[in-house]
Write a structure and sequence with these properties.
The complex is a heterodimer of chains A (419) and B (139).
Chain A (H helix, E strand, L loop, with lengths): L1 E6 L2 H9 L8 E4 L6 E4 L1 H5 L12 H7 L2 E4 L2 H15 L6 E5 L2 E5 L8 H16 L3 E6 L2 H13 L6 E3 L5 H9 L10 H10 L5 H5 L3 H7 L2 H10 L17 E11 L2 H21 L2 E12 L10 E12 L2 H15 L6 E9 L2 E2 L15 H14 L35 E2 L1
Parallel strand pairs in A: 2-4, 7-8
Antiparallel strand pairs in A: 1-6, 1-7, 2-3, 5-6, 9-12, 10-11, 10-12, 10-13
Chain B lengths: L38 H5 L6 E6 L14 E5 L9 E6 L2 E10 L2 E5 L8 E2 L8 E9 L4
Antiparallel strand pairs in B: 1-2, 2-7, 3-4, 3-7, 4-5, 5-6
The chains are: A alpha+beta (419), B mainly beta (139).
Chain lengths: 419, 139
């Protein structure tokens, strides 16, 4: 038995915890650079606003309906997600964190409990401890648990919890018959039209289809999905997140960048962010990869894209050494005359700080004390407060995030105010 | 590949280890080491449910809560009458003392300049969390 717990409109809900005025109002969260809608409150969904719509197309509707837009605040969502996963982990010894706002719990041994009541306890605790609304689905397989979660979320009659195992066979059939086949985990946008063309348009029809035939027509993946819909577990929990072997930091720019100087500032900043993560996980990088590219969707612009890896003499976690390496690489691959739209860096060849080999030669591996001070200052006053001059001062390439809420839970200087 | 010694070898400085290598009896205090005191452990009972908020204003000075203080708020606790709580009033977060008698609920400021907020019939009390500690730096 599995449970799938999923935060409702997770990003919007995180914003509402710290700004209760947003409760009951239509709220959207926008992607990086305030481009598109990446999260919608229930009120916004009711207005017919689809996921991924560019914000500028919504300006009129927003004005008429008082839609509040927020720039995405991943520091806040990430922290609230970590808290939510820790709370959910209290409800089962087996947990797989599936995404920022959903996780599976293994429910073996819980079958004799009233799972619907258990699900309500989960909901109540996450609501009280974190202020976040979640829905809970139970099923014999991960695919069924996902489906149960969908039912819990879409059908108010279930009160936010659906245990498919508690339904009578006839009740379950009726329920599955009413759900679009596209909602099944793993079917996706691509599989849906073909299945429908073959007359399989609801979940029950897929469940009862001949798995061998589906395997021939589609793939072994779909055959497995059908087995899961029939209650045979084929997909286990993946509990251990692999240790990060690379650390990436890349962004699309707010505006095109043409000059090397602008790219250098961006790359230095991304190295700074990645290096902070590197130090947090206690690793050293052995090499820095840097890449730049133009906008591939602007076919009328000349296109260029290239990456380069620069090895370090000694593994290091010192921002200054890593920036030096990245800028060396950037200088080699920069070509004038292009409208650059994105740059990125990847710290590679990571080793554990504690397993560091004694240096054979006296190479510069940086100054950990300086880096500690820098991380502490930035943790308090916000990322980028103390940075290398190479990162520049308020440059044009920086992301537009004009409507971002404070980092309520991750910066001392931005704590929620109470009067 | 054949390597030939360089005619003018470069000097390679090597670090000298100054700390002594322990080789002998362990410290007699070793069995009594208990680790260090951690303020988080002292102030935070439920890590996931604990948030920090900053006080703005003087409505709670009588309870020893000053403008600029940092409050530790535990959302996992059930608020009881007499607790200092963070509550939601008109969409704003506010810190007050909770007072309950029979069916009556008040949020009381600890400063005579502020009038208590009495919840009207049907108005639901929205406690955001229970304040468990005050943190104030003296310099």
């Amino acid at each position: 038995m599995f449970a799938l717990i999923d935060g409702n409109n997770f990003y919007v809900s995180c914003e509402r915890v710290f700004d209760p005025k947003l409760e009951g109002r239509p709220v959207v969260v926008l992607s990086n650079n305030d481009g598109c809608v990446v999260a919608r409150s229930q009120e916004v969904k009711a207005l017919g606003v689809k996921m991924g719509v560019p914000w500028f197309q919504l300006k009129d509707l927003a004005k008429q309906n008082g839609i509040v837009a927020k720039s995405s605040n991943y520091s806040l969502y990430g922290d609230m997600s970590a808290r939510m996963m820790a709370v959910l982990g209290q409800f089962s010894p087996d947990q797989e964190i599936y995404s920022i706002d959903e996780c599976f719990l293994g429910m073996d041994g819980f079958e004799r409990y009233d799972l619907a009541a258990y699900g309500q306890r989960i909901r109540a605790r996450v609501r009280q401890w974190l202020g976040l609304p979640v829905c809970v689905g139970f099923g014999e397989t991960k695919t069924l648990a996902k489906l149960a979660n969908h039912v819990a979320k879409k059908r108010p009659g279930f009160g936010g919890v659906c245990d498919l195992g508690a339904l009578s066979p006839a009740g379950r059939d009726a329920l599955l018959e009413g759900i679009d086949v596209g909602e099944v985990w793993g079917v996706g946008y691509r599989g849906t039209p073909r299945l429908k063309a073959l007359g399989i348009d609801n979940v029950k029809a897929l469940r009862d289809a001949d798995p061998k035939w589906l395997r021939r027509e589609f793939s072994v993946v779909l055959e497995r999905t059908v087995a899961e819909l029939n209650g045979t577990p084929c997909i286990g929990l993946e509990e251990e997140a692999p240790a990060k072997q690379q650390i990436m930091s890349s962004r699309a720019f707010g505006d095109y960048v043409y000059e090397l100087a602008g790219l250098e500032e961006a790359v230095a900043t991304y190295v700074g962010r990645a290096a902070e993560k590197l130090r947090r996980q206690g690793s050293l990088a052995g090499a820095v990869q840097v890449y730049v590219r133009t906008n591939p969707f602007k076919a009328d612009h000349p296109q260029y894209q290239r990456g380069l890896t620069v090895p370090l003499a000694e593994p290091s976690d010192d921002t200054r050494l890593l920036v030096r390496a990245a800028l060396l690489g950037l200088k080699r691959l920069y070509k004038p005359g292009y409208a650059y739209q994105k740059a990125g860096v990847m710290l590679m060849d990571l080793t554990d700080t504690s397993h560091m080999q004694a240096a054979l030669f006296d190479a510069d591996r940086g100054n950990p004390a300086v880096m500690r001070v820098m991380d502490r200052i930035n943790a308090y006053w916000g990322r980028g407060t103390l940075r290398l001059a190479a990162e520049g001062v308020d440059p044009a390439w920086r992301m537009r995030r004009g409507m971002m809420s404070p980092c309520y839970t991750t910066r001392w200087s931005e704590l929620p105010l109470v009067n | 590949m054949i390597s030939i010694p360089s005619p003018n070898p470069r000097r390679v400085p090597r670090p000298l280890f100054l700390s002594r290598v322990p080789a002998g009896f362990p410290s007699p205090a070793e069995d009594y080491v208990e680790g260090t005191l951690d303020l988080n452990e002292h102030l935070i009972a439920h890590r996931e449910a604990t948030f920090f908020v900053r006080v703005k204003g003087h409505s709670m000075t009588g309870a020893g809560i000053a403008d600029g203080d940092l409050l530790v708020v535990d959302r996992s606790l059930e608020a009881a009458s007499g607790d200092i709580v963070v509550a939601v009033i008109d969409g704003e977060l506010t810190v007050k003392r909770l007072w309950q008698r029979g069916g009556r609920v008040r949020l009381i400021a600890e400063n005579p300049a502020f009038t208590p907020i009495e919840l009207k019939d049907g108005q639901e009390l929205a406690v955001w969390g229970v304040v468990t500690s005050i943190v104030r730096r003296m310099r």
